[in-house]
Design goal:
Layout (H helix, E strand, L loop, with lengths): L3 E5 L2 E4 L15 H12 L7 E10 L7 E10 L4 E10 L2 E12 L30 H5 E9 L2 E11 L11 H9 L2 H4 L8 E4 L2 E6 L7 E10 L5 E9 L2 E14 L1
Antiparallel strand pairs: 1-2, 2-4, 3-6, 3-10, 4-5, 5-6, 7-8, 8-11, 9-13, 10-13, 11-12, 12-13
Helix pairs in contact: 1-3
Amino acid sequence: MSFYQPLGDDRFASTSHTSGPWDPAFQHAGPPAALLGRALERCEPRDGFVLARLTYEILRPVPVAEVSVAARVLRPGRSVELLEGELSAGGRPVMTVRAWRVLAAAAPTIADDAPLPPRPHEATPPPAALDGFGYGKAVELRFAVGGWNQPGPATVWTRLRVPLLPDEEPTGLQRLLAVADSGNGVSAVLPLDRWLFINPELTVHLRREPRGDWICLDAETTITEGGAGLARSTLSDDAGVVAVGAQSLLVARR
Protein backbone atom coordinates (compact mmCIF):
# COMPACT_ATOMS: atom_id res chain seq x y z
CA MET A 1 0.00 0.00 0.00
CA SER A 2 1.04 3.62 -0.54
CA PHE A 3 -0.25 7.13 0.14
CA TYR A 4 -1.49 7.44 -3.46
CA GLN A 5 -2.35 5.27 -6.43
CA PRO A 6 -1.51 6.76 -9.87
CA LEU A 7 -4.41 7.15 -12.28
CA GLY A 8 -2.51 8.68 -15.21
CA ASP A 9 -2.38 12.25 -16.52
CA ASP A 10 -1.00 13.52 -13.16
CA ARG A 11 -4.10 12.27 -11.34
CA PHE A 12 -3.88 10.21 -8.15
CA ALA A 13 -6.30 8.32 -5.93
CA SER A 14 -5.71 9.11 -2.26
CA THR A 15 -5.60 6.05 -0.01
CA SER A 16 -6.71 5.79 3.62
CA HIS A 17 -3.05 6.27 4.66
CA THR A 18 -3.40 10.00 3.88
CA SER A 19 -6.23 10.68 6.35
CA GLY A 20 -5.40 13.16 9.11
CA PRO A 21 -6.20 13.51 12.82
CA TRP A 22 -8.82 16.28 12.66
CA ASP A 23 -11.31 14.55 10.32
CA PRO A 24 -10.90 11.14 8.61
CA ALA A 25 -12.43 12.58 5.42
CA PHE A 26 -9.51 14.98 4.99
CA GLN A 27 -5.81 14.40 4.46
CA HIS A 28 -2.91 15.16 6.73
CA ALA A 29 -0.97 17.87 4.88
CA GLY A 30 2.20 15.76 4.74
CA PRO A 31 1.30 13.42 1.85
CA PRO A 32 -0.03 16.15 -0.50
CA ALA A 33 3.00 18.31 0.31
CA ALA A 34 5.23 15.41 -0.69
CA LEU A 35 3.20 14.80 -3.86
CA LEU A 36 3.63 18.44 -4.86
CA GLY A 37 7.32 18.19 -4.00
CA ARG A 38 7.58 15.27 -6.42
CA ALA A 39 5.97 17.40 -9.14
CA LEU A 40 8.51 20.18 -8.52
CA GLU A 41 11.40 17.70 -8.71
CA ARG A 42 10.16 16.63 -12.15
CA CYS A 43 9.46 20.15 -13.43
CA GLU A 44 12.09 20.98 -16.04
CA PRO A 45 14.94 19.63 -13.86
CA ARG A 46 18.36 21.28 -14.19
CA ASP A 47 21.73 19.75 -13.35
CA GLY A 48 23.58 21.59 -10.61
CA PHE A 49 20.44 23.21 -9.16
CA VAL A 50 18.77 22.54 -5.79
CA LEU A 51 15.47 23.47 -4.19
CA ALA A 52 16.12 26.03 -1.45
CA ARG A 53 12.70 27.02 -0.10
CA LEU A 54 9.15 25.71 -0.44
CA THR A 55 6.09 27.59 0.81
CA TYR A 56 2.75 25.78 0.84
CA GLU A 57 -0.64 27.47 1.12
CA ILE A 58 -3.39 25.12 2.29
CA LEU A 59 -6.41 26.77 0.70
CA ARG A 60 -8.99 24.34 2.10
CA PRO A 61 -9.04 20.83 3.59
CA VAL A 62 -7.62 18.27 1.16
CA PRO A 63 -10.17 15.46 0.77
CA VAL A 64 -9.25 11.79 0.80
CA ALA A 65 -10.29 11.52 -2.84
CA GLU A 66 -8.91 11.82 -6.35
CA VAL A 67 -6.42 14.69 -6.69
CA SER A 68 -4.40 16.12 -9.55
CA VAL A 69 -1.10 17.99 -9.57
CA ALA A 70 0.57 20.44 -11.92
CA ALA A 71 3.86 22.34 -11.77
CA ARG A 72 5.58 24.97 -13.89
CA VAL A 73 8.54 27.34 -13.91
CA LEU A 74 7.03 30.68 -12.96
CA ARG A 75 10.17 32.77 -13.22
CA PRO A 76 13.14 31.26 -15.09
CA GLY A 77 16.71 32.41 -14.49
CA ARG A 78 20.36 31.54 -15.05
CA SER A 79 21.12 30.96 -11.35
CA VAL A 80 17.81 31.41 -9.51
CA GLU A 81 14.31 30.45 -10.60
CA LEU A 82 10.85 30.29 -9.07
CA LEU A 83 8.64 27.22 -9.45
CA GLU A 84 4.93 26.93 -8.79
CA GLY A 85 2.73 23.90 -8.16
CA GLU A 86 -0.96 23.28 -7.55
CA LEU A 87 -2.89 20.33 -6.15
CA SER A 88 -6.59 20.20 -7.04
CA ALA A 89 -9.55 18.09 -5.96
CA GLY A 90 -13.06 18.20 -7.33
CA GLY A 91 -12.01 20.71 -9.96
CA ARG A 92 -10.68 23.39 -7.60
CA PRO A 93 -7.27 24.06 -6.05
CA VAL A 94 -6.82 22.91 -2.46
CA MET A 95 -3.06 23.38 -1.95
CA THR A 96 -0.41 25.42 -3.76
CA VAL A 97 3.36 25.67 -3.45
CA ARG A 98 5.99 28.12 -4.60
CA ALA A 99 9.64 27.09 -4.49
CA TRP A 100 12.95 28.76 -5.19
CA ARG A 101 15.46 26.64 -7.09
CA VAL A 102 19.04 27.91 -7.01
CA LEU A 103 22.47 27.00 -8.31
CA ALA A 104 24.13 24.64 -5.82
CA ALA A 105 26.63 26.34 -3.49
CA ALA A 106 30.28 26.00 -4.47
CA ALA A 107 31.46 27.08 -0.98
CA PRO A 108 32.43 24.52 1.68
CA THR A 109 29.94 23.56 4.40
CA ILE A 110 29.76 26.11 7.23
CA ALA A 111 27.53 25.03 10.12
CA ASP A 112 27.60 24.66 13.89
CA ASP A 113 24.83 22.19 14.61
CA ALA A 114 24.17 20.58 17.96
CA PRO A 115 24.46 16.76 18.03
CA LEU A 116 21.22 14.86 17.61
CA PRO A 117 19.80 12.70 20.41
CA PRO A 118 20.10 8.97 19.70
CA ARG A 119 17.20 7.24 18.01
CA PRO A 120 15.18 5.03 20.41
CA HIS A 121 14.98 1.35 19.57
CA GLU A 122 11.18 1.14 19.53
CA ALA A 123 8.30 3.15 18.09
CA THR A 124 6.16 5.36 20.33
CA PRO A 125 2.46 4.36 20.28
CA PRO A 126 0.02 7.23 19.68
CA PRO A 127 -2.43 8.42 22.37
CA ALA A 128 -6.07 7.33 22.23
CA ALA A 129 -7.08 10.64 20.62
CA LEU A 130 -4.84 9.88 17.63
CA ASP A 131 -5.05 6.12 17.47
CA GLY A 132 -6.50 4.82 14.23
CA PHE A 133 -6.09 7.67 11.75
CA GLY A 134 -4.45 6.62 8.51
CA TYR A 135 -1.42 8.88 8.40
CA GLY A 136 -0.58 8.01 12.00
CA LYS A 137 -0.30 4.34 11.06
CA ALA A 138 1.71 5.10 7.92
CA VAL A 139 4.54 6.95 9.71
CA GLU A 140 6.67 5.44 12.45
CA LEU A 141 7.54 7.81 15.30
CA ARG A 142 10.24 7.38 17.94
CA PHE A 143 10.37 10.16 20.53
CA ALA A 144 13.88 10.95 21.78
CA VAL A 145 12.75 14.00 23.78
CA GLY A 146 9.20 14.70 24.96
CA GLY A 147 6.25 12.56 23.98
CA TRP A 148 2.52 12.50 23.28
CA ASN A 149 1.74 12.80 27.00
CA GLN A 150 4.35 15.52 27.61
CA PRO A 151 3.14 18.87 26.23
CA GLY A 152 5.87 21.10 24.87
CA PRO A 153 9.03 20.84 22.75
CA ALA A 154 9.80 17.42 21.32
CA THR A 155 12.43 15.63 19.28
CA VAL A 156 11.13 12.68 17.32
CA TRP A 157 12.64 10.39 14.71
CA THR A 158 10.27 9.53 11.86
CA ARG A 159 10.23 6.93 9.09
CA LEU A 160 7.66 6.30 6.38
CA ARG A 161 6.07 2.87 6.60
CA VAL A 162 4.54 3.22 3.12
CA PRO A 163 5.88 4.92 -0.04
CA LEU A 164 4.33 7.94 -1.67
CA LEU A 165 3.48 5.85 -4.76
CA PRO A 166 3.58 2.09 -5.30
CA ASP A 167 6.79 0.63 -6.72
CA GLU A 168 8.56 4.01 -6.45
CA GLU A 169 11.23 4.71 -3.85
CA PRO A 170 10.59 8.12 -2.23
CA THR A 171 13.34 10.69 -2.68
CA GLY A 172 14.92 12.35 0.33
CA LEU A 173 12.90 15.49 -0.35
CA GLN A 174 9.65 13.53 -0.48
CA ARG A 175 10.44 11.79 2.83
CA LEU A 176 11.12 15.15 4.46
CA LEU A 177 8.01 16.86 3.08
CA ALA A 178 5.81 13.96 4.13
CA VAL A 179 6.63 14.65 7.80
CA ALA A 180 7.54 18.38 7.88
CA ASP A 181 3.90 19.28 8.55
CA SER A 182 3.93 17.23 11.78
CA GLY A 183 5.88 19.76 13.86
CA ASN A 184 2.75 21.25 15.42
CA GLY A 185 1.43 17.81 16.32
CA VAL A 186 4.50 16.32 17.98
CA SER A 187 5.20 19.53 19.96
CA ALA A 188 1.58 20.18 20.97
CA VAL A 189 1.16 22.42 24.01
CA LEU A 190 -2.63 22.00 24.34
CA PRO A 191 -4.75 18.83 24.76
CA LEU A 192 -5.61 17.31 21.39
CA ASP A 193 -9.09 16.31 22.52
CA ARG A 194 -10.05 19.89 23.48
CA TRP A 195 -8.14 22.14 21.08
CA LEU A 196 -7.48 22.55 17.36
CA PHE A 197 -4.16 23.97 16.18
CA ILE A 198 -4.38 23.77 12.41
CA ASN A 199 -1.82 25.30 10.06
CA PRO A 200 -3.02 27.06 6.87
CA GLU A 201 0.56 27.13 5.56
CA LEU A 202 3.94 25.43 5.75
CA THR A 203 7.33 26.85 4.85
CA VAL A 204 10.47 24.70 4.56
CA HIS A 205 13.96 26.08 3.99
CA LEU A 206 16.32 23.38 2.72
CA ARG A 207 20.06 23.20 3.34
CA ARG A 208 20.48 19.97 1.40
CA GLU A 209 18.51 16.89 0.38
CA PRO A 210 18.14 14.31 3.15
CA ARG A 211 19.76 10.90 2.89
CA GLY A 212 18.45 7.62 4.28
CA ASP A 213 15.05 6.56 5.63
CA TRP A 214 14.97 8.53 8.88
CA ILE A 215 14.00 12.19 9.37
CA CYS A 216 14.29 13.79 12.82
CA LEU A 217 11.96 16.65 13.84
CA ASP A 218 13.13 18.89 16.67
CA ALA A 219 9.95 20.94 17.14
CA GLU A 220 8.57 23.66 19.38
CA THR A 221 5.14 25.32 19.46
CA THR A 222 4.38 28.77 20.90
CA ILE A 223 0.97 30.42 21.24
CA THR A 224 0.33 34.10 21.94
CA GLU A 225 -3.01 35.14 23.44
CA GLY A 226 -4.78 37.48 21.07
CA GLY A 227 -2.39 36.49 18.30
CA ALA A 228 -1.60 33.21 16.59
CA GLY A 229 0.33 30.03 17.12
CA LEU A 230 3.68 29.18 15.59
CA ALA A 231 5.35 25.79 15.27
CA ARG A 232 9.04 25.69 14.34
CA SER A 233 11.01 22.58 13.42
CA THR A 234 14.60 21.69 12.70
CA LEU A 235 14.72 18.65 10.42
CA SER A 236 17.73 16.34 10.24
CA ASP A 237 18.88 13.01 8.89
CA ASP A 238 21.50 10.74 10.45
CA ALA A 239 24.29 13.02 9.18
CA GLY A 240 22.88 16.31 10.53
CA VAL A 241 20.52 19.20 9.90
CA VAL A 242 18.92 19.35 6.45
CA ALA A 243 16.12 21.92 6.78
CA VAL A 244 14.09 24.21 9.01
CA GLY A 245 10.32 24.46 8.89
CA ALA A 246 7.63 26.77 10.23
CA GLN A 247 3.83 26.65 10.45
CA SER A 248 1.43 29.44 11.37
CA LEU A 249 -1.37 28.02 13.52
CA LEU A 250 -5.06 28.68 13.89
CA VAL A 251 -5.73 27.91 17.57
CA ALA A 252 -9.35 27.30 18.60
CA ARG A 253 -11.41 25.20 20.96
CA ARG A 254 -12.96 22.10 19.43
